[in-house]
Write a structure and sequence with these properties.
Strands 1-2 form a two-stranded antiparallel ribbon. It has 360 residues and is mainly alpha-helical. The longest helix is centred in the N-terminal third of the chain and has 22 residues. A hairpin with an 8-residue loop joins strand 1 and strand 2.
């Protein structure tokens, strides 16, 4: 038996055979969508990341579906359980002539597991096999750098929980990590107005904008300072004055901020959601963590990476002859935390400290 409304419709609209079907289809579709939302969840549901005191609007909404995706390289991380040393265990320096001094105090068992992991993390199967090559020389310096990052920069590396850093954090199985960078100072663009020496030529460093392309060189390698804020609308002085922060410094800062956002997959509010971010009493925890990160990157570039310029073969250098350097994207790969916050150091006490490893 057909519904009464359907029979009446046919009497009143004998030539309209599509109307009832459309109504039934729309209602049925709505019921189906509602059922799917109940069963599978709201596809556009959001979650808020609190970036400051509640009630101040300092939070960032993100799609739950995006948060659930995660870093696909997490599943490729290789680890193994540490082997607590026992009395009488042979040391690597006594067993292997090629064992680097920095790893010589490890027991043979822990030396073997660490070297095997480093070969897999970096994709270099010949690492520490006795060959006299630049990769082994660089690797020894990188071990020192990794230990320093874990021990000396805990405020940035472990800001949101114990995660640590290993070779895999940057390399992800590749001999040359992705997202390294070189000095990038293009020739002056005489056909464009502005700060022609370093801008008006879109580059990946500046987020494909015409902002200065030397932001990483000036601010993450030369110990440049981001000091462009002033409460006055106009600041006395000229670019020729020493220490004067001209408009070019502001544009360079914008270029660096673009790089930060792309490196972590966030926007400006992630750090700067504050009434007055120039006031350190009002900044967000993310702003403070990022500030530590700037200092950390400056140190690892100037103390560890740039001095290796004479060790690398020519094909590993930039077009200006400089050594490869690191920045935010080298570790983060587009995520707020490398490996989405996976604790990569817990099984590798040899890389966690410059002192004696602590095995549990």
């Amino acid at each position: 038996m057909l519904p009464k409304w359907f029979t009446n419709w046919n009497k009143e609209n004998p030539t309209n055979v599509f109307g009832p079907g459309i109504i039934v289809g729309v209602v049925g579709g709505a019921v189906f969508v509602a059922a799917m939302i109940v069963a599978w969840g709201q596809p556009f549901a959001t979650a808020s990341t609190q970036t400051g005191p509640r009630g101040t609007g300092m939070s960032i909404p993100e799609f739950k579906s995006a948060l659930a995706e995660g870093d696909p390289t997490i599943g490729t991380f290789i680890t193994s359980d540490p082997i607590p040393p026992q009395p009488g265990d042979q040391l690597a320096r006594d067993a292997y002539e090629e064992a680097p001094e920095i790893l010589g105090d490890l027991t043979v068992a822990n030396y073997d597991r660490l070297v095997e992991a480093m070969r897999l993390w970096t994709g270099i199967p010949t690492l520490f096999n006795g060959e006299d090559n630049y990769q082994t020389t660089v690797a020894m310096r990188m071990i020192e750098m990794t230990q320093n990052l874990n021990e000396g920069w805990d405020g940035h590396v472990n800001a949101n929980g114990q995660v640590g850093v290993t070779c895999a954090t940057c390399h992800r199985g590749q001999p040359v990590p992705s997202n390294i960078w070189f000095d990038n100072t293009p020739l002056p663009n005489t056909n464009m107005a502005g700060f022609a020496a370093v801008q008006n030529r879109a580059s990946s460093t500046s987020g494909a904008t015409s902002l200065p392309s030397d932001a990483l060189s000036k601010l993450l390698a030369d110990y440049g300072q981001i000091t462009v804020h002033d409460l006055e609308s106009r600041v006395a002085g000229s670019p020729s004055d020493e220490g004067y922060q001209a408009i070019q410094h502001t544009e360079r800062t914008y270029a660096l901020m673009n790089y930060f956002a792309n490196s972590l997959g966030v926007n400006c509010n992630f750090c700067h959601n504050s009434r007055a971010f120039y006031d350190t009493a009002q900044v967000t925890p993310q702003w403070a963590t990022a500030s530590l990160g700037i200092g950390m990157v400056q140190e690892l570039n100037t103390e560890y990476l740039m001095p290796l310029v004479d060790v690398y073969p020519e094909e590993r250098l930039g077009h200006l002859g400089d050594a490869p350097k690191a920045a935010c994207a080298t570790c983060h790969k587009g995520y707020q935390q490398p490996y989405n916050g996976l604790n990569v150091i817990k099984d590798w006490p040899e890389l966690a400290t410059t002192g004696t490893p602590e095995y549990e």
